[in-house]
């Protein structure tokens, strides 16, 4: 499990050397690069993300920082994974109108790997998960341009894994707006209702005074 910042097309080689384990053949991992859809621009960077692999339920790397004009190519390895866009609020649920690679079954002896490429059009965070049963809940998530504070990738993954209580250190009731926004939605609604109730009382007593 390795990671690189701005590796260009050298990440696969870096990763391959890291993973010197027993994959039977030594196919050069760059061989599938011709299947990239619609080259967005000649100057954009294409980031390669390995999805799954032997004993791996992860996107590698699991985050990418990209510029408009760049692209991200998911390369699906063994098992049957997807790259499906979600939202920060619901990490393991397909986003309406978002992209979805669909399932990509890959056998253990595969020597070529299906790919799916998405274009990066802006720097808005893009949240991605694997829709295979249980994978997202085991942390198989990915992000493009995740913020370094607030809605971070770590918070996204924690939310995917159901760990919404792990706000770092701050006892509840403080004003940190980020990680608590979804799991408390019911509580938030109650809170809003009680505020509405209060203002109704307030308004009524105003009427009374008039
Ligand atoms: Cu998966």
Can you give a write-up of this model?
The protein is an alpha+beta fold and 210 residues long. The chain has one domain (8-179): Cupredoxins -  blue copper proteins (Immunoglobulin-like), CATH 2.60.40. Helix content is 20%, strand content 18%. The protein contains 3 helices and 10 strands. It has helices at residues 11-18, 153-160, 185-209, and strands spanning 46-51, 59-60, 63-64, 71-76, 79-81, 84-86, 104-106, 115-119, 126-129, 141-144. The strands form 3 sheets. Strands 2-1-4-8 form a 4-stranded mixed beta sheet, with no helix packed on it. The longest helix is centred in the last third of the chain and has 25 residues, at 185-209. The relative contact order is 0.13. The structure holds copper (II) ion. Residues 52, 57, 81, 130, 132, 135, 140 line the site of copper (II) ion.
Quickly describe the structure.
The protein has helices at 11-18, 153-160, 185-209, and strands at 46-51, 59-60, 63-64, 71-76, 79-81, 84-86, 104-106, 115-119, 126-129, 141-144. The protein has a single domain (8-179), classed as Immunoglobulin-like (Sandwich), CATH 2.60.40. A four-stranded mixed β-sheet has the order 2-1-4-8, with no helix packed on it. It has a four-stranded mixed β-sheet with strand order 3-10-9-6, with helices on one face.
Average pLDDT, to the nearest integer?
74
Shape: globular
The CATH topology turns out to be Immunoglobulin-like
- Which structural class matches the secondary elements? alpha+beta
Structure ligands: copper (II) ion
Distance between the termini: 70 Å
Give the name of the CATH architecture: Sandwich
Helix content: 10-25%
Spatial order of strands in the largest sheet: 2-1-4-8
The ordered H/E elements are HEEEEEEEEEEHH
Number of helices: 3
User: At the fourth CATH level, what is the homologous superfamily?
Assistant: Cupredoxins -  blue copper proteins
Low-confidence stretches: 19-41, 166-210
- Count all strands and give the number: 10
The CATH class turns out to be Mainly Beta
Radius of gyration from the CA trace?
22 Å
Main sheet makeup = 4 strands, mixed
Provide the number of structural domains.
1
Q: In what range is the share of β-strand residues?
A: 15-25%
């Amino acid at each position: 499990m390795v990671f690189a910042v701005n590796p260009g097309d050298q990440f696969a080689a870096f990763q391959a050397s890291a993973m010197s384990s027993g994959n039977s053949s030594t196919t050069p991992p760059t061989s599938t690069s011709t299947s990239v859809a619609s080259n967005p621009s000649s100057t954009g960077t294409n980031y390669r993300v390995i999805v799954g692999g032997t004993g791996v339920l992860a996107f590698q790397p699991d985050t990418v920082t990209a510029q408009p004009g760049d692209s991200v190519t998911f390369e699906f390895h063994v098992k049957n994974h997807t790259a499906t866009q979600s939202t920060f609020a619901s990490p393991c649920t397909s986003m309406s109108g978002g992209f979805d690679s669909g399932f990509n079954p890959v056998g253990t002896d595969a020597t070529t790997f299906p790919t799916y490429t998405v274009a990066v059009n802006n720097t808005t965070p893009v949240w991605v998960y694997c829709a295979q049963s249980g994978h997202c809940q085991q942390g198989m998530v990915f992000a493009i341009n995740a913020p370094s504070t607030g809605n971070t990738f770590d918070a996204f993954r924690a939310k995917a894994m159901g760990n919404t209580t792990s706000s770092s250190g701050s006892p509840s009731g403080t004003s940190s707006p980020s990680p608590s926004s979804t799991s408390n939605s019911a509580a938030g609604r109650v809170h809003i209702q009680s505020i509405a109730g209060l203002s109704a009382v307030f308004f009524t007593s105003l009427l009374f005074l008039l």
